[in-house]
UniProtKB/TrEMBL annotation:
GO molecular-function terms, A-Z: RNA binding; zinc ion binding
Protein's name according to its UniProt entry: Pentatricopeptide repeat-containing protein
PANTHER family referenced in this protein's UniProt entry, alphabetically: OS04G0469400 PROTEIN, PENTATRICOPEPTIDE REPEAT-CONTAINING PROTEIN
Keywords: Repeat
Amino acid sequence: MSTSIQMSPLISNAILKETHINIPHKNLNFPKKLVKTQSLRDNCKQGSLKEAFVSLSYILADQNASQDCFDEPYSLVLELCASQKALFQGKQIHTHVLKLNNVYDQVFLWTKLVFFYGKCGVLLDARKVFDEMSERSVFTWNAMIGAYVTNGETFEALELHREMWVSGDSPDAWTFTSVLKACGEVMDICHGRQIHGLVVKHGLFTNVFVVNSLMAMYTNCSDQHAAMLLFDRMAETKDVVSWNSIISGFKANKQSLEALSSFRDMRLAGISPTTYTFVIALQACEESPFVTFGMQIHASVLKSSHCADIYVANALVVMYSRCGKMAEAARVFNDMEVKDNISWNSMLSGLVQNGLYDETLKMFREMQCARYEPDQCSVLSMLATSGRLGNLFTGMELHAYTMKKGIDSDLQVGNTLLDMYAKCCKIDNMNSVFDRILFKDDISWTTLIAGYVQNNFHLKAIQVFREALMKRVNVDSMIIGSILQACSGLNCISLVKELHGYTMRRETSDIVLENSFLDLYGGCGDVDCAFHVFGSMEVKDVVSWTSMISCYVDNQRANEGLSLFLSMIAEGIESDSIALVSALSAAADLSALRKGKEIHGFLIRKGFIKEGFVAGSLVDMYACCGAVQNSWKVFSCVDDKDLVLWTTMIDAYGMHGYGETAIRLFQMMVDEKIRPDHISFLALLYACSHSALVDEGRRYFKRMICEYKLEPWPEHYVCLVDMLGRANQLDEAFQFVESMEVEPTPAAYCALLNACRIHHNKEKSDLAAKKLLELDPWDSGNYVLISNVYASQGRWDDVEEVRAKMKEKGLKKDPACSWIEVGNNVHTFMAGDKSHPEADKIRQKLANITERLEIEGGYVAQTKFVLHNVDEKEKVKMLYSHSERLAIAYGLLKNSNRTPIRITKNLRICDDCHTFSKLVSKIYGCEIIARDANRFHHFVDGVCSCGNFW
């Protein structure tokens, strides 16, 4: 008996077009077994779309088959099309069904069509089939709701669920799981709670799938407490999905410790982890404190059947990378039998995050050799690496690769290219990349502005910032921080204030930005504005306090800086090493040895003493407080001495006049194979200058140029000029200045002028004074120095002329000031000071001291050093009220245990006070350690360490 095959042309076309099957001639006869549905089931089970269509064609060709035979074949093929997203073939089935109308259970098959279209992502077609159904089952509603949820249309899923209730159809467990997933994705906890109530009402509270969905919904809505309540009530019904849900919930809410604790409880409950469990648990270990737990999980993985799982291995690589253990990450990576792009990208990203840029380059080459094509993630890591290494060639190769692959238009790639070119100092390339980015975001503008700032194009950065404001770019703290750096580079205090006002109006300021403003005001010398910012901060951290302390110290208000440090301690703020070093600087400026020692003890207790820069600060503090022996002790205790520490110690000896010791220490440093730099030679030349070591100074100046190939800075020339001038080799000093390869700075002529004052050379002093005012006519110190030189030569008309010029320019002389530390306080004295609480006692003590020096030491006031045109009696009175004498008198008044009297003066100590101090040290049997603007003076038994050379 012959059987003719009657097929829709659409079905035939589908088979011929997509599966290339030769359809049997309609007059051929086929065995009965070929038309059996079992053959179709087998083909669908094997996933063979081609064979499934052949089997379906045989079934449809059987004219003797009853109508109810076609429902199952259609549904089997539709399910297969859905699983393989074979949209074209599925549509042909749909057309055939509509044309022949040979369906027994239309609700069943139309539900399968809704499911098929949903799986293929064609929601409009799915909804069209759904809407055209006159009858629907719960499975139909589930199929449409599930289609919406799967394709991210969660609001439509929730709306359809409401329609389901209105229609009177009752939901089942599957409905609730889909709707709960939708609630979680849009974080609609109110709707989720309503569904929770319906779950209870329908008696599905014991259904593990529904409860798991409820937990996931509460977790996504950040209500972990509700999720835990559900979890705890599950008792014996908890499965691995339940545990996974609760662990991932803790992880999503950044409760890593709780997530890991739940993982441990799960293991104790005898539940075997899945791949997902291990991955989530490892993600919870991606912080350094949990690395030990991560290693324990790694051990569990090795014992389980998941040791070869690529997802788990990738999670291990990421976990070790985030914890800074790249050796362990590399070991896991190398042991992987199968790697994918995620594996390679995880390693590349980890190496970049840990600053191992050379290793990143090597890993990238290995990836290419292994024939893995770099994707966007790989390129981003490599661009970051090229920028950090300043490897322009590799960066440009990567840029070309992104253009070839068509990913250069990607926003993240474009922003990373911007950063790479900025770090490689290629501004033109950076501009070109920026112009090619079609849809720029805030990061694009921020990166461009930061790039200009990094390359010292400060004005251009400000110009681009204004352009960003006009384009209504969201100005965040990062952009403001970059512009503040530009303001710092330009030293533009007016723009800083403008930005400060802008952030206050926009309320975009945070503690980091406030600290930046505070620091910048201090850097620009506006201490009052800095203190206003500090005082107005609602929350202050250690950075805020440190910035304000540094502001005081950097602006010659060390006493206030030290006082603020003590206030910080009293407030209970935990000091870090930076804050303590700032306090050490304040103590050094004030020569406050007692406070410096207290801070030293604090550093020891905190364990900061091991940090190299702390040791250098301690050496400098003790040196500035006149305790150079303590500086040497600190220096000797450091095992691994760097160049900065050696230089600091050399400078310490230099400022105390131990030039020969400084030279020996310099040679020790060279013998240790530490190469000196410009700063090292500057400290050495300074030491030679203040110890009259002229020949040695010349020799080391030549060594710096010839042996170490270091081009002298203006400061090196000034040191040599000062050294020659002090040694009364004025002709050579002037010739040296005239022959300098660089333009002489005002400091060079100051050194010459000071030498002329010491050696009473009128002719050369006029020449130096003229050049000094030509170079720097706005520094009040220059006019004071010239005035003093003229006064020492008795040229009072010239003195008046200089003072008139100062007045005309609105310049004022810095008043002479001296400090002394007594007890826990630093006391400040001005010339003729009467403001001290014990002023009368101090003046009486000073009178007694002076009288005793005149009787026992033959002291006679040297009025020639009074640089004012007044009578002799007034000159004597002025000498007796100098600030350093008041400080010495107060020291003797309070010094009962004969400890050294340590004073600091902001100007050079005068010759008469120098003689006065020597006599006090001899007659009163005390040591006086004085630091003036030039150097240290150790007065002991009538002799000064400077040898009258200062």
